[in-house]
Structure formats: C-alpha cells, structure tokens
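subagent[fold] <- orchestrator: predict structure for attached chain, return tokens only, no commentary.
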Amino acid sequence: MGIETSGAKRFWKTWSTAPQTQHWLETDWAELEITTRLVDSFYQGNVRLAGEIRQRVGRWGATTEDRARLRMDFNQQTEQEAAAAAQEATRDLDDELFKMLSE
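subagent[fold] -> orchestrator:
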C-alpha cells in the first residue's frame, strides 16, 4: 500500500480489525485504503486533511456518538476490547501528534 507513517499504519490496523468492518464489501475496503492514504499525508504534515478524515471515519462509527447516530450496537465485550486497543493506540498517537505540533 506504500504507507510511510506509523500513525497511518496504526490507523489501518485499528480499522481493519474493528467490529464495524465485519460485513464490509470491497468498496468499503477501498474507502479505507483511500482514507489511510489521507491519514498518512496528515501525519506527514498536511493537517488540512483532518476535517476530511473525521468525516470519513464518522460514517464508519468512529466514536460512541457516531455509533449512536448510526444505530450501531456491538456486544459489550467487543466494545471493551476495542476500547482497550484504542486506548493503547491513543497513547502512541498522542505522543506522535504532540511531537508533530511542537515542531
């Protein structure tokens, strides 16, 4: 796929294993690939892409609010596992974002 940044690699890993993706079709995976490329550009410094990325992941149910709006419901264990993985990824992401914004 040609992804360079660790943030984009985490993004792909997180979304490719998310409960939302269980029933995705080929077109959904194509959108994930495009969005991952946008995320890669974001981590390379193109912060203007943040709004576009947020809109895309919002349609997939990225946050609790998004999932409620989309009427997504996962069993509690799955959500807890996803939350734990997200928390770990967020720590790495926070460090990387802080470093990028402090330059």
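orchestrator: received. Logging for downstream: The helical segments are 6-16, 26-43, 50-59, 64-69, 76-102. Residues 24 and 40 are 22 Å apart (CA to CA).
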